[in-house]
């Protein structure tokens, strides 16, 4: 079958490790697994990190990329795939399973004509969604949903700052936060990016570094080193910073004095559960929310989509379709 895959780890030039061609058919270990025929799959920053070698041992290559997808299972049911799989013996919050992994880490990913996954990760495709739209729900939008509604402690009317105005997670955060009744502030490096965020539903846009101090109830942080100091400065006393990524670096100065003096809560958030995915779908359908898609490309043009994400050009999700 055809697939988009990482040929090796290439930290400095990740796109040099990108391959497109024949890969082995998926293997189904037992009846609790299903083969899904992929219709569309959404690009995630995780895929760029895989090309760089993060999270995979050298012997894990070649590795089919992709952790977000929509397709049809082996019974003919249109489905979306939850992105995180866990140890079958784990009985607590699946996101906190120490053995959890995203599709594409320990399992071949979704950038293929077919993919094998545990059946419990399959959820009915939302009615009225295209394949491309549905492919974006269980990854980026689920991440944003957990950040806002499970981790942030926000209440309707509170003010939330979303760092980075146009990425996949940021776009999802803006759409969900506006629909949830929050005051939505964003940062963006250019006026065009801030205008795009306002068009998605944000109420105010700021250049990086210009957000007023002590002004917001929570900060959604996925940028990392470039925005960390601003995130701590912008949060009001007693506020919350929810961290789900660090695309510009994971080791900024901690500024512990600011954290304890202002009694800030810093909490991590990673993916989401299948139960949260069901709640997310119901929320999106009740408010007529659709994912913001930057571009939909054939899988054979995956390099162009990857380049748009790597260069920070994408406004919303990059989607590949067969």
UniProtKB/TrEMBL annotation:
One of its GO terms (molecular function) is oxidoreductase activity. Pfam families: ADH_zinc_N. InterPro entries: ADH-like_C (IPR013149), ER (IPR020843), GroES-like_sf (IPR011032), NAD(P)-bd_dom_sf (IPR036291), Zinc_ADH-like (IPR052711). SUPFAM superfamilies: GroES-like, NAD(P)-binding Rossmann-fold domains. Residues 13-320 form the Enoyl reductase (ER) domain. It comes from the Bacteria. PANTHER family: DEHYDROGENASE, PUTATIVE (AFU_ORTHOLOGUE AFUA_2G13270)-RELATED, PTHR45033. This is NADPH:quinone reductase-like Zn-dependent oxidoreductase.
